[in-house]
Design goal:
Blueprint (H helix, E strand, L loop, with lengths): L10 E5 L12 E3 L12 E6 L2 E7 L14 H10 L4 E10 L9 E3 L2 E5 L23 H7 L5 E2 L2 E5 L7 H9 L4 E3 L2 H10 L3 E11 L11 H10 L1 H14 L22
Parallel strand pairs: 1-4, 1-5, 5-11, 6-8, 7-9, 9-10
Antiparallel strand pairs: 2-3, 3-4, 5-10, 6-11
Keywords: Glycosyltransferase, Purine salvage, Transferase
Family: Belongs to the PNP/MTAP phosphorylase family. MTAP subfamily.
GO molecular function: S-methyl-5-thioadenosine phosphorylase activity
């Protein structure tokens, strides 16, 4: 086990424990400490489709972190410490539209933040304001739109860990939002502040409470649906990694001409 940042990677995947099988037996494990504490778990480095990839289990190895307690700042900072420039973020989502049933993969292009109390910036001083009109890297999104994945959608991120009430779900749907999730913010904005290209890959696990007329969303059903679709999802992520561009991305380099109050890793 390595205790420093000597390992390097160009692409990261933040996702569930099922993604460990991405890597061969010679994968390297990195333990890091950041100014914001330790990330959710040690980071695994390996080769995927000829690319050097870092994998970070978002919720920890044993799913010990709830969405509202995740060390988001440490997670993203640690990835940049390893040289990562692009991040794919597979996640489970509820659908707010009946046509996107369980098993649908959506590559959102917009985000709505309905969280509260989460540390969501590295810049608590210095008057730094990052561009966020389009929260996801357009170039990386193109790499993620594979096979039958839906191109575009609005993902509303709620605080959790509870699921939405029917009234909340119906309200979200009336706004024209298509997906609901608990982890997409502040992950995306922290990536932007670190000038990392970031794209979510959203797997629909359920119809949200206001869409479905049954008993509503249950965690056990969400986990089961995610595991049911883990192999097709991994295949899609592999293809996205293979198609991901190399080199600099001017779209996500948002600090040009700005004197930052902290030094980025």
């Amino acid at each position: 086990m390595n205790n420093d940042a000597t390992g390097r990677a160009e692409i990261a995947v933040i996702g569930g424990s099922g993604f460990y099988s991405f890597f061969a037996d010679d994968a390297e494990e990195i333990v890091l400490e950041t100014p914001y504490g330790a990330p959710s778990a040690p980071i695994t480095l390996g080769e995927v489709e000829g690319r050097r990839v870092a994998f970070l289990p978002r919720h920890g190895r044993q799913h010990e972190y709830s969405p509202h307690t995740l060390p988001y700042r440490a997670n993203m900072w640690a990835l940049r410490m390893l040289g990562v420039g692009r991040v794919f973020a597979p996640c489970a989502v509820g659908s707010l539209v009946p046509e996107y049933g369980p098993g649908t993969v959506v590559i959102p292009d917009q985000l709505v933040d309905r969280t509260s109390g989460r540390a969501q910036t590295y810049f608590d001083q210095g008057g730094v304001h990052v561009e966020f009109a389009d929260p996801y890297c357009p170039t990386l999104r193109k790499s993620a739109v594979q096979d039958t994945a839906v191109d575009g959608g609005v993902m509303v991120v709620v605080e959790g860990p509870r699921f939405s009430t029917r009234a909340e779900s119906q309200w979200f749907a009336r706004q024209g939002w298509t997906l609901v999730n608990m982890t997409g913010h502040p992950e995306a904005v922290l990536a932007r502040e670190l000038e990392l290209c970031y794209a979510p890959i959203a797997l629909v696990t359920d119809l949200d409470a206001g869409i479905e007329s049954g008993q509503g969303v249950k965690a056990v059903d969400v986990f089961a649906e995610f595991q049911k679709n883990i192999e097709p999802l991994k295949a899609l992520v592999r293809a996205a990694i293979s198609d991901a561009p190399t080199g600099d991305c001017p779209t996500c380099r948002v600090h040009a001409g700005i004197d930052l109050p902290i030094e980025l890793p």
